[in-house]
Prior knowledge:
- The complex is a heterodimer.
- By secondary structure, chain A is α+β, with helices and mostly antiparallel strands.
- Chain A contains 15 helices and 14 strands.
- In chain A, the strands form 3 sheets. In chain A, strands 1, 4, 5, 6, 7, 10, 11, 12, 13 and 14 form a 10-stranded mixed beta sheet that branches. In chain A, strands 2-3 form a two-stranded antiparallel ribbon. Chain A has a two-stranded antiparallel ribbon with strand order 8-9.
- In chain A, strand 8 and strand 9 (187-189) form a beta hairpin.
- In chain A, helix 1 (2-11) packs across helix 13.
- Chain A is elongated, with a radius of gyration of 30 Å.
- The model of chain A has no long low-confidence stretch (mean pLDDT 87).
- Chain B is α/β, with parallel strands linked by helices.
- Chain B has 7 helices and 10 strands.
- Chain A binds chain B through residues 3-4, 7-8, 10-11, 315-316, 318-327, 329, 402-404, 407, and chain B through 51, 54, 57, 59-60, 80-81, 84-89, 91, 93, 95, 99-104, 108, 112-113, 116-117, 157.
Amino acid sequence: MLALAWANLVHNKVRTGLSVLAVGIGIMLMLISSGLAGGSIAEVAQRMQSVDAELVVLPAQENIIFTSGAPFPEIYRRYIEKQADDRGPLAAAVIPVFFGQVHMGGQQQRLFGVDPAQMGLFLGSRRVLEGRAFDRAHAFAQRIADGAPRPPSVDEAGINAFLADGLELVIDDRLRRVGYYDEAAGRQVPYRIGDRIRVMGREFRIVGVVEAGVAGRVFAPLATLREIALAGEKKSSMFFVKLRPDVDPVLAADRLAAALGSAARVELKSAYGTLLRESFAQVNVYMNASSGLALVVCFLFILLTMYTMVLERTRETGVLKALGVAGADLLRLSVIEALLIALAGVAAGILIAFAAKWVLGVVRPLLTVELTTGRLLLAAAVGVCGGALSALYPGYRAARLDPAEALSYE
Amino acid sequence: MSDDLMIDVAGLYHTYRHAGVDEPVLHGVALRVRRGEFVTIMGPSGCGKTTLLNILGLMLPPTRAERLCVAGRQTLGLAERERARIRRTAIGFVFQRFNLLPTISARRNVALPLKIRGEPLDGQIEPLLERVGLAGLAHKKPGQLSVGQQQRVAIARALVGRPALLLADEPTGNLDSANAQAILSLLSAFHREWGQTILMITHNERLAAVADRVIHMRDGRFCE
């Protein structure tokens, strides 16, 4: 049966090739869409894991993907710092973050407004590759803290002069390498120290490049972003909390949650990946539905191919029946042919997916496509099962053919 | 049914139904063929010869029959699975249009019945192909062979499993007279050596003469 199925497929090379390609494209779409969603989430979650803290304090009931604005006044920071047991405060450090947006590397990036003095908690063991990770003394923040008078009017030059030494960006090496399209050079060029980037209507300059893998791809001084967006009001988008080494994170999370009330939720940092996946759930449903639909179309293509082949081979089916082949064997022949197509399609799809991943890595280096063994096995299983199911109806038709009628088929 | 009979049919009727209209084809046919007998059936087109052959080959259940014994089995009411088993083990077919599988070689076409039976080839194919004069053409696909060669492959395929009954539906109908004579000689030779029962439909009086018995058919009835 296998030899006959193979011979039938080889006999119709073009049609077999097109069917294999159709399945391959469906499998590739499935792998790339799920790999892109999963890869991006995993990459963001991994970066957040790099922060030297155990807990995150987030706005309650807010999708963490789209967490924006600054719902937490400074009093929340103080509440967190106040939580203590008999050995002292639970938190060794409270790390406020203010989120902004910046267009860099050809796409929107989340801008992490952080206190330069706490930059070390974000860097961990990662090195500063070029420039500096802000000015530790941070004259601008100090000036604000000292109550320096703001410019008296909305005079642009005056505001810029006031902000000048606060308009700094630190980026990660991956974003630096992606760079931007330089119209004068006519090509993509990497970012360099001193490059100027517009953020929130002000011109920032890149002062440092750090190793990739830190929580954000772009950092700016917290005080600067607060000054521009909130007129200096000390609000935060979220907090990381670094606990005292002897404190149990789960107990501390419960304690903080109770203290902060219903406006905040306290999660273990390790749960961030799960929260991200939950936040993406709706998007994933759409993406899975899209790739599922693409696969259904591909399997309909196999069904159509098999159905056409069964119709074309009506006389041959009659011959096989005359020779005593049972209907079940004809059904099996059809399924074997479809499985061969599906297997070749799965192999082609996996190859195309790896090629697409490579192309995406070149064209959109900031995107992460994750092709895990689990996803590859799932794609193979879906491809093989779909192929077999697609052959059932044509195979059933072949099995049910009347041999005498089939032999007289023109 | 006597052990001596390969085919024992009585009161055989068949009616086709096209677009709600009944079209009777066989009208109470009765036929007895002894084991090892070579019988030809002659008759004009549309008289029911092929329908009779399809029924005897268990490819078409009759509309009605008093008795339908083939290859020693009463076959009335048998399920398709069982009829397929009898076709596989006891009946060989040769068709006017050869009906070889176009996607596989002559050798594989000939080997097909043994493969279907799940029997080993045991070097049976090459000698048989040599016997039908296709020794060097075993690897060719049907489309690469002449019509005469294709019919030789079809005969080899029908005989490879040494079926007790060979049904041939105008096996020379698509051949020129030289090829027709060669094919008929081949069938006669196999019949003599292997002793198969052969039931052959033909239009050709001269070819029919090689048979032990010639039956004439007209309007769905025998007129011996």
